[in-house]
Amino acid sequence: MGHYPKSNMPPLPQLGDMPAVQSHFQTILKRRLQIEIEQTPPLFPWESELQEYPIDAPAIELPMWLAQLQSLRLPTPLPDDILVTLLERCQGLAQQALQPGLKLVQAVESLFPDQPQAIDQIAGLVLATGTARDSQPQDFQALKAAFPGGYAGANPQQQVTLAMLAARDIFDALTLKVTADAPTMSRHWQTNRGLVTLTATYEPGAIARLHLEADLPAAGHLEIGSLGETVTQTGPGILNLMVSDPEPERLYSLEVGLGDPEGSTLTFTLVCSH
């Protein structure tokens, strides 16, 4: 029978020594993680680089407009940082004359850079389902059952679907479109200061008019920047703006602000079809 060469490897520990080995391994692992964290500190979702915060810094305040998004009729809630990103993207994209599917793709693509093919495919499916206000209760319950683990437990394609469902409903909530056949449209937006209600009314005629009314829960302003039209108020109440002879199919930007003039704003899109 042959002889194996002697090895320099220390003898395997006896079974009774295993707890000591496990403890030593855990100590090494903790130290390795500590070194990696010190070399590459983790960032918060809203940070692009490491920042210094005072020890007694208050909690970061989420946008006052987020309250509306937290109540979106989705199969499962989305994290606040994703909702904030979607709101910022949708406000800008709503002002562009793009096809609805392309708007959905561009609203979520920065959140899922490694899912370009899935994004294109899911956009068509989401558009085909209609907005939350159009869905039937049984359809919504079936969709809800597909996400037992919530957003965190969903696979990447499911997460894309959830983000697109939210973006679709955000676009809908940010847009007021009036026509001669449907001359009035209202939108409601919940904030942490109360409910904002916007109503657009189209008045056809030799010189058509588009009347805008905003019921604000606090001091604020209403502005159509492209026309240089702005109205303000120092407390809760109703603000009014009038657009004379609005251009058909033009996308008007309507800014609603709460608080002081430099405070938080939300941009809606107005469209008038003669």
Record the SSE blueprint:
Elements: H1 18-39, H2 66-69, H3 80-93, H4 100-108, H5 116-129, H6 137-145, H7 156-174, E1 175-179, E2 184-191, E3 194-203, E4 209-216, E5 220-224, E6 229-233, E7 237-244, E8 251-258, E9 265-273
Parallel strand pairs: 1-9
Antiparallel strand pairs: 2-3, 3-4, 4-7, 5-6, 5-8, 8-9
Helix pairs in contact: 3-4, 3-7, 4-5, 4-7, 5-7
Characterization of the model:
The protein is of the alpha+beta class. The chain folds into 2 domains: 66-174, no CATH class; 180-273, Immunoglobulin-like. Helix content is 33%, strand content 24%. The chain has 7 helices and 9 strands; from the N terminus they run αααααααβββββββββ. The strands form 2 sheets. The chain has a 5-stranded mixed beta sheet with strand order 1-9-8-5-6. A 4-stranded antiparallel beta sheet has the order 2-3-4-7. β5 (220-224) and β6 (229-233) form a beta hairpin. The longest helix has 22 residues, at 18-39. The chain is globular, with a radius of gyration of 27 Å.
Helix content: 25-40%
| Oligomeric status | single chain
Mean pLDDT equals 81
Indicate the low-confidence ranges by residue numbers. 4-16, 53-60
Radius of gyration: 27 Å
The biggest beta sheet is recorded as:
5 strands, mixed
- Physical arrangement of strands within the biggest beta sheet: 1-9-8-5-6
